[in-house]
Amino acid sequence: MSAAAGKASAGGPLGVAIVGCGRVGRKRAGALEGGRLIAVADRDETAAARLAAAHPGCAETRTWERVVDRDDVDAVIVSTSHDALAPITLAAVRAGKHVLVEKPGARSPAELRPVLEAARAARVTVKVGFNHRFHPALRQARALFDQGAIGPLLYLRGRYGHGGRRGYEREWRADPQVAGGGQLIDQGVHLIDLARWFAGDFAIASGHVATYFWDMPVEDNAFLSLRTADGKTAWLHASCTEWKNLFSFELFGRDGKLEVEGLGGSYGTERLALHRMLPGMGPPETRTWEYPAPDESWQLEFDDFRAAILARRPPLGTLDDALAALEIVEAIYAGRAR
Questions:
Q1: Distance CA 158, CA 220 (A)
Q2: DSSP letters for 267-293
Q3: Distance CA 328, CA 22 (A)
Q4: Using CA atoms, how far apart are residues 194 and 138, in angstroms rounded to an integer?
Q5: What span, in angstroms and rounded, lies between the C-alpha atoms of 217 and 288?
Q6: Can you tell me the distance from the alpha carbon of 248 to that of 321, in angstroms, rounded to the nearest whole number?
Q7: φ and ψ at 289, to 5 degrees?
Q8: What pLDDT, in 10s, does the model give residues 155-167?
Q9: pLDDT, tens digit, for every residue of 38-85?
Q10: How many angstroms separate the Cα of 27 from the Cα of each of 67, 86, 183, 301?
């Protein structure tokens, strides 16, 4: 562990570097309470300069190696395209830094496994950016689930999609060499991660991907059926032909149902409903919550990352979680059930 990382583990403020100064990098920079932005890097000098200018004292560079090697950097946030996630994370880990790397963490399980091994050897904290776990409706759903509000889980259903935008087929997400795939490895991994969070590990994964609308060599829709060893099923659909942005996640238990809709913004107001079965069955007893406040998931995720470093515990959303999700993605892309 580097001296800087050791200082952070002792309770000092985290010195943070961000690699990748696009939309997600800017969101991360705005959610660093408990940390201090030391340096930013991006191949686009303008993007790096713009982000650095918003944080007095922050250095900027086009070269990510320069920020990873800085002694005053305790943690690196990697918010690049998928092809750079694993190499930069691996270098940061080997330099003794803690890392928060955006999902999916890598383009494949083979790319991620060396990162996981290096993180264990270096004894640093690496968190994968599964920020949906920190949305208030999903946090509340998890708390109610843990309290037994719907009884034992039977199955779950998740849908997540957007409609793209003009030129979407020419963005890096449409390049299989850069992205590693299409909608499945993009929004689909969020659904897989949430499904595992509630149901546990999946022993069987089947499904298929298809390109229906966008003229690109990756899929715009993914359909999955996942089953645990004891038969719990997750039925998932990720799409970029949704046209009206959608997030829906439903948990069906023996005694009731939890239903999350919306993520705020263009996905609609975030809502949670608890439907509890009555003794006579029929229409359930329903309680609902709404969360109209601005999205705090980015700050809450950083809080968990920092707390995990200080307590030397696993964060909520580990490299093992990312590896399990990517193994399912790989199985679906290979066209084989597992």
A1: 16
A2: G--EEEEEEE--TT-SSPEEEEEEE-S
A3: 28
A4: 9
A5: 42
A6: 21
A7: -130, 145
A8: 999 999 999 999 9
A9: 999 999 999 999 999 999 999 999 999 999 999 999 999 999 999 999
A10: 19, 20, 22, 12
